[in-house]
């Protein structure tokens, strides 16, 4: 059986590994002519459930080979008071570009072809026995089957890197510590790498297309008695900004042999930090559904039935957190059992 994966990002690369492990003949098509990225780019946190998904297909070591571990979460208020400290479990902080490059190496080492400069905008049904649309938030394949469009969440996300972070007043460089500061005009998070570089972000509520200058951000951080403004100022102006979107309400995840996966189907705002991990879960559970079902149509239906409640709850929780509301009750899911490669997928 042949599978075509469209998109070679985190979700697509993991899907290629998982489908190959399930016995499928996999090819990956990527629209970009090469692995995109100049400079460090964005960073992300990979949660324990993402690592667990990779473990099922023998690829957890790939993620552990890059970035560094996060083990403690600290919460501060705008005055700098430490409200809470608690263990996180095994998270990792990684540069997006490093994680994708590591996954690409693993995909190629397993003999799976990744073909760049191959844009797929529609599916006829003859390309493969299943086509996985892992082409991200602005998915071309999704537009062909569902009218849903990404929604601006009302927040802009600034991020940057500050070398020599320990010299900034108030910064904690404790190994594995991730600090979240609920400031008066932002949510700011940072961690200090083993090499002493602070990885930081600031989520600021404002209109789409508002000021992107470092001065705009510093004006919102300086009123608080926290290290946030110092870290941003010490980054030397190397500050990037992106708009935070989510994707609620995609009614059609599949049409014929085409199935959407990851952000193409259910992108969440960054507040829960689960985007990469949810895509990895998708990949493993899709592969199990195809492995354990009698035919492709039944497998895709099983996959959607199993995944929708969990990922839609995450999208809603992240939206509520972005808006400053409580996350809500969530959905009870035995994700460890669903991911377990040695167990059949039920649902």
From TrEMBL:
Q: Does the keyword Transcription regulation apply?
A: no
Q: Where is the composition biased (Polar residues)?
A: 315-324
Q: Which UniProt keywords apply?
A: Monooxygenase, Oxidoreductase, Signal
> What's the superkingdom here?
Bacteria
The signal peptide stretch is 1-18
Single GO molecular function: FAD binding
Q: Which InterPro entries match?
A: FAD-bd, FAD-dep_Monooxygenase_BioMet, FAD/NAD-bd_sf
Coiled-coil ranges (or none):
none
Extract the ranges annotated as region (Disordered). Answer: 311-333
Q: Which Pfam families match?
A: FAD_binding_3, NAD_binding_8
Tell whether Hydrolase is among the UniProt keywords: no
* Domain spans labelled FAD-binding: 124-317
Question: Mind telling me what this protein is named?
Answer: FAD-dependent monooxygenase
Lineage of source species: Bacteria, Bacillati, Actinomycetota, Actinomycetes, Cryptosporangiales
């Amino acid at each position: 059986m042949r599978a075509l994966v469209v998109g070679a990002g985190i979700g697509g690369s993991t899907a290629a590994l998982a489908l190959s492990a399930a016995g499928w003949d996999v090819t990956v098509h990527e629209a970009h002519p090469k692995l995109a990225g100049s400079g460090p780019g964005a960073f992300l946190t990979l949660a324990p459930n993402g690592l667990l998904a990779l473990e099922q297909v023998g690829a957890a070591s790939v993620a552990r080979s890059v970035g560094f571990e996060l083990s403690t979460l600290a919460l501060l208020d705008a005055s700098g008071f430490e409200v809470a400290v608690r263990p996180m479990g095994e998270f990792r902080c990684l540069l997006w570009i490093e994680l994708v490059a590591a996954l690409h190496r693993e995909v190629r080492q397993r003999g799976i072809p990744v073909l760049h400069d191959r844009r797929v905008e529609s599916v006829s049904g003859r390309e493969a026995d299943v086509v996985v649309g892992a082409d991200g938030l602005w998915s071309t394949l999704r537009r062909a089957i569902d009218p849903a469009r990404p929604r601006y969440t009302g927040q802009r996300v600034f991020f940057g890197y500050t070398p020599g972070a320990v010299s900034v007043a108030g910064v904690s460089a404790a190994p594995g510590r991730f600090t979240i500061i609920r400031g008066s005009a932002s949510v700011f998070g940072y961690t200090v790498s083993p090499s002493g570089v602070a990885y930081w972000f600031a989520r600021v509520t404002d209109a789409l297309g508002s000021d992107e200058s470092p001065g705009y951000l510093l004006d919102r951080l300086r009123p608080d008695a926290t290290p946030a403004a110092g870290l941003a100022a010490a980054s030397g102006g190397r500050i990037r900004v992106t708009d935070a979107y989510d994707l609620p309400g995609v009614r059609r995840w599949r049409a014929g042999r085409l199935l959407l996966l990851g952000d193409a189907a259910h992108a969440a705002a960054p507040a829960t930090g689960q985007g990469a991990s949810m895509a990895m879960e998708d990949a493993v559970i899709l592969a199990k559904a195809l492995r354990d079902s009698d035919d492709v149509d039944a497998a895709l239906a099983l996959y959607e039935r199993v995944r929708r409640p969990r990922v839609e709850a995450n999208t809603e929780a992240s939206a509520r957190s972005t808006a400053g509301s409580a996350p809500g009750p969530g959905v009870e899911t035995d994700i460890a059992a669903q991911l377990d490669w040695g167990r059949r997928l039920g649902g």
